[in-house]
Sequence to fold (748 residues):
Amino acid sequence: MTSGHVDFDGQIVAFAEDLRTEGVSVGTSELLDAFSALELVDWGALGDFRETLAATIAKSPEDRRLFALVFDRFFFRATELEALRLEVAEPQTRFGDGELDLDELRRQIARALRDSTDGDLRDLARLAIAAFGKGHGSGVLGVDVQRIRRALGLRSERQPELPEDDPRREGIPREQLRRFEQALRRELERAQIERNQALPPKRALTDLDRSLPGGPVQDLAAVHRVVAQLRRRLASGGHELRGHSRHAHVDVRATMRASLQTGGVPITLKYRPRRPRRPELFVLCDVSTSVTSASTFFLSILHALHDVFRKQRSFVFIERISEVTDVFQRERDFRAAAAAISRDAGVADISGYTDYGRVWSEFLAEIEDELHPRATVIVLGDARTNGRPPREDLFAAITAKAGRTFWLNPEPKLYWNYGDSVISAYAQYCEAFECWRTDQLEDFVRALTRPRVS
Amino acid sequence: MANEPTSAQEMADGLRAVGYLADGPTALVSFLATKLGKPVLVEGPAGVGKTELAKALAKYLGRELVRLQCYEGLDEAKALYEWNYRKQLLRIQAESDGAGWDSVQDDIFGEQFLLERPLLTAIAASEPVVLLIDEIDKTDQEFEAMLLELLSDFQITIPELGRIEARTHPVVLLTSNNSRELTEALKRRCLYLWLDYPDFEHELEIVRVHCPELPETITRKLVEVVQMVRELDLKKPPSIAESIDWARALLLLGADDIDQAVFRETMSVIVKHRTDLDTVAERVGVRLEPAQAV
Fold:
């Protein structure tokens, strides 16, 4: 980036390199595709150029998001670098004193923002900066952006105190506002580069940039999506690792067909393809007070699991264990199910503290005969025993009977084994995962398909 | 009519002429696909017109559409080719005793004993076709791996016959609802197109094209409501296909406005889950004007 002029192909390769550092895997063949595709489109238009690159390089919705971010960053920097090298500066928009009616300008910008779907935000931003951002920047771009936005009186909420004809009265569409802020930030950055005559160091994308826009963790739809994926993985993934089954059914039709090669003598037997087995799930979910914040998340996982698995038995526990399979089968609505569980699951005991030892013994007593090597046991809990004996021997008995056992712990790994957390005692018998966000749930799903070491 | 678009704009106009309103990226990627001869992986939520795109492309390019619907457990015999073993058996039985083993063996693995399945059909067609591999995410990874040879080299290897190379270059579209992560190998061979729910203006235009008889005010309101419903957290948000269905239903009913009563009666056209119905009735229904007293 420092050697001045770089040819265009080189820029694209550098862009791909930039993408790779942000975690988008770009293959060489994909780059070649991009080049041959670019020969076909008129890439004088920014939109087409960008779409062509995206279609050949970024191949999932997440990659698309990263692509958009990196694209903006990369080409912004590349242009600025060229501008610096050629010593081109943007003409400054200046206003003489007194000739500017700030209030009128505010209204004009708001009107333009409200009405135009694809208005020239850049010009608006420059105008706004010239009028309201004069010189005294705080040095932090985000602060300046918000200061200018406030000075303009732009809000997404309705502002009923404003006069009837004011375009800001009904609020500016949120999306418009976001784009305007982006344009502001960009123009401020440009001005800063011009002042300093140097590019600031490249900032890597933060987790916040990467994460999808949207609400907090308890996004039911997201949980459902991840669990649906979990089902597919459990049902169809990893056959090749399980070895051959002991018996198989002969496919008569296929055998006959194969026998044609040997003159009608069935020498090679063909077997029916093995259908993916139906997984059986046993899910234990902690609903005690120590996991209150996580239990909504847990219950939504439980709920989502019930949507996709037919052979599933669910239990909630605090001090004792209680089966809630029928609650979920009866109630399709999550809120109703959650209410029903807190009302009549019968786990609201005297103390409200989890007793894992007792939970294991009750679970074993109730379910021991039904556990088999094809069953999967998932425990959702924080492994805080409140000083009671953890009884990991009972837990070991469960894991020995079940095929696989997973533990999802809602606490960050940092807190594991501190205080009364005994997760390490259990973790030696199962695979324990930190899980309090949907992306961690995805990690868990991914881990499920990893080949087993044993 | 065989059309050969020479620019993305031409492609967009052509698709519009056959009743498919493509946005910028869609037209661009379709154009690139015809020019580069690369398969296109189309992803997006259900019902945004992924399959329709393939149909429209076939219509516009004047090619035949060969469709392979994927499902769990789909195997080569259903997707590529199969030996017609009944016919082979008959051939063997009809053979008089005199014929030698060699001639029989040569005979029964000839092309007339081959049952062509969609993929082979697409490859062997004398006229170029549009091949649609629908819902690729429903199949197993093994099947995906099998597709790789077809997608990168446009050839299929049949052990008894050897390699069959494509006589013509098909335009290949793969669709996926993103219910499973596809393998990198497959993605690398494809162009990628993400189709999302359209924005207000675009959807308005789509509904207008498919249901021109519906009064403009109702169309506008309908699209507004659908977009509003989509913002709720639903199990199955309404798709474009469903807004078109709804428009048709309203037309049939002769509704002249979407008020609460009409909405309540016809809501089930766009919302298909019981829990969703409750949410939508609660959140969107009340915002409409109450039914007029008759």
